[in-house]
Amino acid sequence: MRMGEFSRRTGVSQRLLRYYEEQGLLRPSRKPSGYREFSEEDITTVRGIRILLGAGLSTATIAELLPCMVDDGLILAPGCPGMLPDLNRERERLDEAVADLLTARATLDSIIAATPLTGADYPDAGYPEAG
């Protein structure tokens, strides 16, 4: 199938599909005219890419892991025994990012709590605005 139909069937924009191809995540065949030709198997590949992106993985990491993933239509699972260390490394990276975000939110909460309120902060309260 051609790019337009493939985009409709996967729900992924043509621009993103070209990006996936540039990153080596998707490898459609080419017709003599140069048009990309996608297969049903490519739909499964895009589904796997979307799942792994949703799990917070980078496209570089996905390029490494995707060939060893098994998609049974319900879940994406590692198909190579050596993948677990990579997946655990990515989980640790996400845990660190979550901790950093929680720290940033706590800092912002402290700043908000320390900010004196003015009438401008409550326009419906009838306070005159600062000028």
Task: Describe the overall structure.
The protein is mainly alpha-helical and 131 residues long. The chain has a single domain, classed as Multidrug-efflux Transporter Regulator, Chain: A, Domain 2, CATH 1.10.1660. It has 5 helices and 4 strands; from the N terminus they run H-H-E-E-H-H-E-E-H. The strands form 2 sheets. Strands 1-2 form a two-stranded antiparallel sheet. A hairpin with a 4-residue loop joins strand 3 and strand 4.
User: Segments where pLDDT lies below 50 for 5+ residues?
Assistant: none
**What is the average of the pLDDT values?**
88
Class from secondary-structure proportions: mainly alpha
Termini separation: 63 Å
Radius of gyration: 23 Å
Question: Biggest β-sheet, characterized?
Answer: 2 strands, antiparallel
Shape: elongated
Proportion of residues in helical segments: 40-55%
* Main sheet strand line-up: 1-2
Query: What is CATH's topology name?
Result: Multidrug-efflux Transporter Regulator, Chain: A, Domain 2
Binned strand content: 5-15%
Order of helices and strands: HHEEHHEEH
The number of domains? 1
CATH architecture: Orthogonal Bundle
What is the CATH C-level name? Answer: Mainly Alpha
- What is the tally of helical segments? 5
Number of strand elements:
4
